[in-house]
Amino acid sequence: MAAGLLALAEVIVFVLVAQWIGVGATVLAAIATSALGWALLARQGTKALTELRASARTGRASAGRELGDAGLVAVGGLLMVLPGFIGDVLGLLCLLPGTRSLVRTALGRLIASRLPVGLRPPVRVDSVRTAEMPRRDDVRTPPMVIEGEVLRGPDGRPAG
User: Fold this and answer.
1) Which residues form a coiled coil (predicted)?
2) Of 25, 28, 29, 128, which sits most exposed with the smallest number of CB within 10 A?
């Protein structure tokens, strides 16, 4: 339903622009924005994928941001390539590095608002490993032990 409304809005905007600047100029503008979309997608997409690979290699904690940027670049490029002026504006917002953070923040807030209350940020997770063990008479209880067995492969080294 949302896609149908967006398509209807695109047609209305296209007709209004065609009445304002003429049909030929409107078609040329649509072709120009698609070409601009391809160029921006190639440039920003390559940059986003390079940053994503570099953060994956180094194991940085910000890899999620790079992954989100790569996704926004892909969506922005698709919106720019498809005909329509509303999609071009939204795609441009996703493709440009300066406005991409605004789109990321807006999407994060939208998604968080649709989550159940218990899952909305900030989410606190306690772990047995990080939680302090209860004390008895000022003596720490020993850590929990998990019994197990080491499996060895045919060469005698531990498997896995």
Assistant:
1) none
2) 128
Domain boundaries along the sequence of the chain: 7-100
Confirm if 51 and 40 have CB atoms less than 8 A apart.
Answer: no
Instruction: Please give the helix or strand (H or E) that residue 140 lies within, else none.
Output: strand 139-140
Whether cis (ω within 30° of 0) applies to the bond prior to 154 is: no
How far is 73 from 70, CA to CA, in rounded Å? Answer: 5
> Which residue stretches of the chain have pLDDT < 70?
59-63, 123-143, 150-154, 156-160
**Tokens, residue 38:** 């391809």
At 28 the pLDDT is 93
Its pTM surpasses 0.70: no
Nearest-angstrom CA–CA distance, 111 and 125? 20
